[in-house]
Amino acid sequence: METEKNKYPEITLILIPPIFNSIDISSEEVNFISLPDIAISNKKSYQQKREKKIVDWAKEIYQKDYNGELISFLQKKSLIEQEKPLFIINYPRNQKQLDSFKNFLSDKKVNTIVISSVSDSVDEYMTENYIVCPLCEKIYRKKKDLKFLCPKDNLTFDWNELEIFTEFYNLYFSKNMIPVIRELLDIYDISSITLRNEEEVLNLPEKLLRIVGASS
Ligand SMILES: [Zn+2]
């Protein structure tokens, strides 16, 4: 059994409240992937959503099971044959996705890292000052401009809609991901990273890389 598991890279599931997701790195040491990388068709569906609100579009796409797309993404990029650890950010994000994903994980070495904050004040500060982009799902500092141009997606959004989306996604996380986290904790090893302030939120990618460096 152990030999079977060694065939695959170590997989770490990173479960992070959306408002803390500052992870935008590619590294020599680790492959980071998240739903927007896997589900590339979602960008197209976003552009075709027309009058539909971002939140309604998000509710629709979050319901889908991306297990098949995830596996074919890993195969296409040959990520599964590499020894580099694979970090998957905020997937699975609901019970249905977890049920389907468990099969894939069953013959692999899996860790879980749960990111949390020490106090409500960090959450509040981040929510007041940052939004989450619905497409790349990274955080960006709020500005006074009328529109936000996401540098990763090259698309513009209204700040107002982004605030509504950010609130929705944070609530979605609490409602749907917390039960997922509980179930994962019963099965896999878990470590937890606690964030105390904005600086620690923004330094999270480096912190994760240090963990990888320390464990290899
Ligand atoms: Zn974006």
Proportion of helical residues: 40-55%
Count of distinct structural domains: 1
SS-derived structural category: alpha/beta
Distance N terminus to C terminus? 22 Å
**How is the main sheet built?**
5 strands, parallel
| Named CATH topology | Rossmann fold
CATH architecture: 3-Layer(aba) Sandwich
Ligands, deduplicated:
zinc ion
| C-alpha Rg (nearest Å) | 17 Å
What's the mean pLDDT score? 89
Structural notes for this entry:
The chain is an alpha/beta fold. It has a single domain (4-127, 177-211), classed as Rossmann fold (3-Layer(aba) Sandwich), CATH 3.40.50. Helix content is 48%, strand content 19%. The protein is built from ten helices and nine strands. The chain has helices spanning 2-6, 35-38, 41-47, 54-63, 67-76, 95-105, 120-129, 159-187, 198-202, 204-215, and strands at residues 11-15, 31-34, 86-89, 110-117, 130-132, 139-141, 147-150, 155-158, 189-195. The strands form three sheets. A five-stranded parallel beta sheet has the order 2-3-1-4-9. The two termini are 22 Å apart. The model has no long low-confidence stretch (mean pLDDT 89).
